[in-house]
Task: inverse folding
């Protein structure tokens, strides 16, 4: 059985050097990405990405922290705003959700919150109500 190392050793010298250069560049890029991820300031808002970097079997999960208290999402004509509310008379350290329908942020049309399972729901525009899986 031939291993990748044996297969590479059979290639011309210039190809072996090129592969080694690409591998070094990849290793440096992964090391720098991990250094950047590790040096971030944690915050309550984060984005999780699954990326295949060859660090192990399967993809790696990389977390990017976002220094904010408000996130807005516009997807397929449905708008969602997530707001981290701190202590006040009406909002006791909570997460506030607002949603609507529209092609721009702050959608003013109606959208439905459809419960799916325990602590899970869809936000869907009325025109797509019949297509819920």
Result:
């Amino acid at each position: 059985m031939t291993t990748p190392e044996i297969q590479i050793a059979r290639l011309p010298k210039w190809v072996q050097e090129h592969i080694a250069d690409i591998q070094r560049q990849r290793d440096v890029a992964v090391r720098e990405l991990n250094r950047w991820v590790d040096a971030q300031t944690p915050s309550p808002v984060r984005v999780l990405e699954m990326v295949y970097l060859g660090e192990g079997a399967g993809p790696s999960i990389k977390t990017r922290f976002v220094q904010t208290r408000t996130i807005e999402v516009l997807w397929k004509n449905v708008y969602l705003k997530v707001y981290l509310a701190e202590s006040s008379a009406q909002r006791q350290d909570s997460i506030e959700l607002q949603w609507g329908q529209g092609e721009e942020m702050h959608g003013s049309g109606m959208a439905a919150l459809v419960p799916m399972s325990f602590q899970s729901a869809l936000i869907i525009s009325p025109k797509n109500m019949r297509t819920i899986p």
